[in-house]
Inverse folding.
């Protein structure tokens, strides 16, 4: 079956071929970076943090020389596998990965997804996407991504998502401390930092690889939603304690 490429996917391919992101700016993610940056010594588009993460030793990364990216998203997000998956470092600029599964089991993805998360964290910490006074005070909390080989992992995700390294969950932000925030519980709403959460989502939206943000527009009070067709209210109300980010398949959808 022939699949029509969307305008947003075309923008992703264009960005991958030509874009280089300067530190502290709010723009498309650093999919390909042809010049060294403070977070990428050899300018190969793979951060030093990722390259020195011992969970990624099997890739043979070296921060002094450009490395190739072998990660591939096979199939589709709800029916696929992850080839040569890359592990997200537990902490980074503006984010940390919270545990709701055994350590280093649920935090694997394609390089494109890893870059999107790290870039959103840098922008969020630098308050590059909004003027929210509280943005960056409490780090982004990233959650479920994919298993190292990809594939389904019921019962965590009954919707059969998170299968090929192109999706990540992130918590709505609190105004008092690091931790979870279930907006379906009325007492929790006092601790909801709406401005910082919106800032964080805008940092994800600034990356042209992001093609879907699934969230609860009612509890987040983002209704009407952001002026972007990528935003999608979850009618089943299963996203009342986190939002869900999906990127375009970085190596095409025909594998």
């Amino acid at each position: 079956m022939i699949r029509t490429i969307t305008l947003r996917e075309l923008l992703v391919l264009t960005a991958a071929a030509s874009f280089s992101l300067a530190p502290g700016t709010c723009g498309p993610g650093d999919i390909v970076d042809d010049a060294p940056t403070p977070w990428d010594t050899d300018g190969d588009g793979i951060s030093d943090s990722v390259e020195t993460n011992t969970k990624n030793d099997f890739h043979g990364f070296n921060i002094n020389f450009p490395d190739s990216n072998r990660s591939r998203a096979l199939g589709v997000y709800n029916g696929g596998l992850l080839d040569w998956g890359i592990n997200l470092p537990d902490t980074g600029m503006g984010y940390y990965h919270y545990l709701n599964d055994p350590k280093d089991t649920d935090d694997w993805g394609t390089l494109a997804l890893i870059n999107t998360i790290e870039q959103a964290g840098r922008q969020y910490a630098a308050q590059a996407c909004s003027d929210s006074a509280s943005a960056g005070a409490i780090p982004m909390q990233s959650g479920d991504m994919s298993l190292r080989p990809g594939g389904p992992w019921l019962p965590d995700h009954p919707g059969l998502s998170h299968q090929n390294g192109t999706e990540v969950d992130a918590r709505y932000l609190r105004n008092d401390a690091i931790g979870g925030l279930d907006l379906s519980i009325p007492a929790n709403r006092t601790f909801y930092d709406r401005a910082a959460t919106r800032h964080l989502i805008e940092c994800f939206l600034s990356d042209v690889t992001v093609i879907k943000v699934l969230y609860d527009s009612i509890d987040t009070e983002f209704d009407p939603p952001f002026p972007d067709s990528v935003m999608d209210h979850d009618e089943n109300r299963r996203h009342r304690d986190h939002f869900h980010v999906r990127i375009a398949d970085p190596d095409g959808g025909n594998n």
Observations:
- The longest helix spans residues 111-125.
- Confidence is low (pLDDT under 50) at residues 1-33.
